Amino acid sequence: QVQLVESGGGLVQAGGSLRLSCAASGRIISISAMRWYRQAPGKQRDLVAVITSRGITNYADSVKGRFTISRDDAKNTVYLQMNSLKSEDTAVYYCNADIKSGIYYIAYWGQGTQVTVSY
Questions:
Q1: Contact at 8 Å (CB) between 49 and 38?
Q2: pLDDT tens by residue, 7-28
Q3: Which of 17, 49, 101, 105 is the least crowded, having the fewest Cβ atoms under 10 Å away?
């Protein structure tokens, strides 16, 4: 069984920084794309950033220049460095990864970690 476990969320003042981590564990043959999503109260879950197995990254316009996604394949871990945080970044952040533990790649989700940005 594959699990994704996020950490690093919390309460931070506007303008501050946080670093989220998401570690995959279990029977893992390989990991393709890894992503971070976020969901604010009463809103849909939106894609924040994605990194491919080759290290190609893409970001939502709202976080470009402030957030950086990276991965450590030796640790099966994806990170999200968040700088210059704004109140509108407040949300539950979820990691998502396409993981091969058998024949096919399957998308797995973490349980989410709360990020709260105060004025």
A1: no
A2: 999 999 999 999 999 999 999 9
A3: 17
